[in-house]
Amino acid sequence: MFVKKPINILVAEDDDDDKLLIIKAFQKTLPKENVTCVEDGEALLQYLKRSAPFDDLNNYPVPDIILLDLNMPRKDGRTALAEIKSHEDFKKIPVIIFTTSNLKDDIETTYKMGSNSYITKPGTFEGLVKVAKEIENYWSNTVMLPL
Amino acid sequence: MRNKFPNSGNSQLFESTNLSMNRIKLYSIISLFLIIVGSGISYWTSERIGFYTSALMETQDILQRTSELYASILERETNIRGFVISGEEEFLTNYRQSLIDAQMLLDKLKDLTIDNPKQHQNLEVLEDLIKQRVTAFEETISYYHENGSLEGFLNSGRVDNALSGYRTIKQAVTTINDEENRLFVERNRSLLNNINALPFIVGLISLFSISVGFVTLFSIFHYNKVQKIASRRIKNYQEQLQEQLYLLDDSNKELEQFAYVASHDLQEPLRKITAFSDLLVEQYSDTLKGEGALYLNRITVAANRMRRLITDLLEYSRAGRITNEEEKEIDLQNVLEIVLDDLEIAIVEKKAKVEVGTFPKVIGKETEFRQVFQNLISNALKFSDPKKIPEIKINCDEAPNEEIKSIVQLDPELSYYKITVEDNGIGFDEGYSEKIFAIFQRLHGKEAFEGTGIGLSISKKIIEKSNGTIQAKSEPGVGSIFTIYLPVIPS
Known about the structure:
- The complex is a heterodimer.
- Chain A is built from five helices and five strands; from the N terminus they run E-H-E-H-E-H-E-H-E-H.
- By secondary structure, chain A is an alpha/beta fold.
- A five-stranded parallel β-sheet of chain A has the order 2-1-3-4-5, with helices on both faces.
- Helices cover about 70% and strands about 10% of the residues of chain B.
- The longest helix of chain B has about 130 residues, at about 155-285.
- Mean pLDDT of chain B is about 85; it is low at about 1-10.
């Protein structure tokens, strides 16, 4: 029987604590090396464009989905989203907005800009684990991803 | 804050304006009165002048005719004399003509002197005298015609009579002339008096009117000056008021922004406290010794409660905020149905009876009204008396006028809907009826009833933003009534 290859998730998150918690939560369902983190939107775009230091494909796998925080220094999530969704190659990668904001405005504009999901960060670790499992399950089992 | 609206200066200013206005009115009335009186006197004086002028002319006429009459009397005398001496009939014809002339003149004079009894009488005396003289003449003429001469007719007695007769006539004419001359002088004097008085009277009145006019003009200038100052001050106050309103609006917005940012940013570290303590429990609960696990649990519980408080604070700061949702006509009946649908589980669980009256359509935001009803009805369910079947009555009526007037928050000029949510729950002490609307105010322990105490504060904020007000009445063990007064917006 065909064993499915686990999905690669790229997380753009500036907060170290959140980064740690997200990695911990996804480790419940995914191998450690399948979750990669970048500092901000600028780094995210550099990663996708494979400019140094992201030219090493072993350490920096091609992401199947992107988890994008909205409020980040240098280049924030909104700008990064706009750039990704206007790029010929990158726009096929599903982007999940993962943020503390639950403002109607943020939800509406990011969907309009082409984001694929919008998730508000859960308050508890338990909640976070649940969300991680759902994301993993949905994007690797429920839907078909572009090749 | 500095008092920007000093009152005393204003009222003085307005009093002064009123005083000036009254003075202007008074001067205008005096001025008008003087002009009317002046015109009256002038008219009367010119009437007098007209009267005296025509009277004078009449006097002259009488004098003229009197002298003509005298001339005709003389002519008659001359003609009679001529006839007696010569016996020529032509003298007699002239005599007759002069008689007719004299009679006509007499009649005319009597007409002219009808308003002067004394002169009229003088004329009658003259007429009598003339008649007597004519009778004497006629006797003389008849005698002459019978005898061909006056031989034996003329004696000293007749001559004396004739002489005295002529003299008395002359005398009477002189009397009439004198009287008329006297009148002429008198009337002339009156005429001159009036003519002289006229410019004096007109001048005096004009002088008065002009003076009053100047005073009025001065008062008007003064009034305008005061008025200008007053309107400038009012404009200043309006600007100051506008400025303060802007400041107030700004500070309100800042406050909301502050509450929003504060609660949003406060949530971040809190979320991490919770998450990491969860992680700690999950990975190390086995190795925690003594009361370590209990402490960790306490941290989690406290953090959760704080998160709830912050969430509620956030919600409160957002309540009534300008959002994208537009105000539109909403059917409160519909809104209530939706809310009761949402609360279905709790209603069934509590076996509560809910009665809903007839509700109108109002202008507002649907989510806000949903929030208000949700808060009030869920409160009624939450604070129900476990010994009774919960009964909740939700009604709407037009608020009576006396009630609107008795509530300071309401505008007595407007009409309001009175929405009541009544329950038979545990109630609360009437002394807390204001306090329960304060943010995070709770009347019961956290253990007895969950919640942070934000629901009523949010409802109050929403209703007040809609220019309404909310009140609570209660009796412990009997129940509570929450009353909302909402302006009826005229369609």
